[in-house]
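Support case: adenosine-5'-diphosphate complex. Customer-provided input:
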Amino acid sequence: SKKIVIKIGSNTLANEDGTICRDFLQNLSKQIQFLIEEGKQIVIVSSGARIAGVSTLGKWMRKEDMHYKQALCAIGQVELMDAYRRVFAVHDLHIGQMLLTREDFSDTNRTLNIRNTLFTLVDESVIPIINENDTVSVEEIRIGDNDTLAALTANLWNADLLILCSDIDGIYDKNPKVHKDAKLIEEVTNIKQLIKTIEIGEVNDFGTGGIATKIGAAKTVNDYGIPMILANGKKEDILLKLLEGTEKATVFLAN
Ligand code: ADP
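Agent response - structure generated as follows:
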C-alpha cells in the first residue's frame, strides 16, 4: 500500500496526566520519515485537541457545556499542532493543518477542494494533519469522532490503507481493559458477524469513539475496497512492524 491514512487517538497521543506524549510523537515522526523515504504517502488524522486544551489550562470545568468544550478544542488545537510541528521538524518534515466538518464531505465543491489540497500537500511531501473543526461543529451536525473522520478521509483521498492507532492491540471478544482473558481477533472479513460475537465495552473520558466507531470506520472503508488495521499506537515502531507483518493487530480485509 502506497497511500496510508493514519489516525492517532487521544489515548495514544496523551500521557495519563493529559499532557502530550513527546516520546510517542518522536517515534511517530521517525517512522513517517522512514515510510516517506520508502515512497509511501501519509495523511494523519489526529485527535487530542481537547485533552491538550485541558492540560494547557490545567483545569476541567463545566464538562458538559458545549461552548466550553469548543473553547478547549480551540486552545488545544494550537498546542497539538505546535507539538507536531516541533517534533516533525527534527526529521525535516513539514506539516499542514486541515480542519474539516461533516458538510465538507457531502458538498461536491468542498470535497473537490479538500482532495486537491490533500494531493498538493502530499505531492510536496508535506504531512497533512486533519482534525474536525470543532469551533463550527455543534453537537447535532458533528462527525463526532475521528475514527469516522479518518474513514471519510481515506475514501475521499482514495487511500490504499487506513490504520487506526489506539491503546489496545485490536478488537477483542470483550474489553481487554476489564477482562484479562479477552482474546484478540486478528482478522475480520465479515463485520456483521463480528458485531454479533463480541462485547463492546465502555469508552473512557477522552476517547470519544470507542470500539463501535472503529468498527463503523472499518465498514465505511471496506465498502470502498480499502482495508483497515486497528493497532496499538503505544508500541514502539508500530507502523513499521505492522507493514512488515511482525506485530499483532486486527486487520479488516476489504471484500
Ligand atoms: P481512541 O482514543 O484510541 O480512539 P477509545 O478509548 O475511543 O480509543 O477506544 C478504545 C477503547 O475501547 C480501548 O481502550 C478499550 O478499553 C475499549 N474497548 C471496549 N470494548 C472493546 C473490545 N471488544 N475490544 C477492544 N477494546 C474495547
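The CA atoms of residues 29 and 88 lie 5 Å apart.

Case will auto-close in a few days if no follow-up is received.
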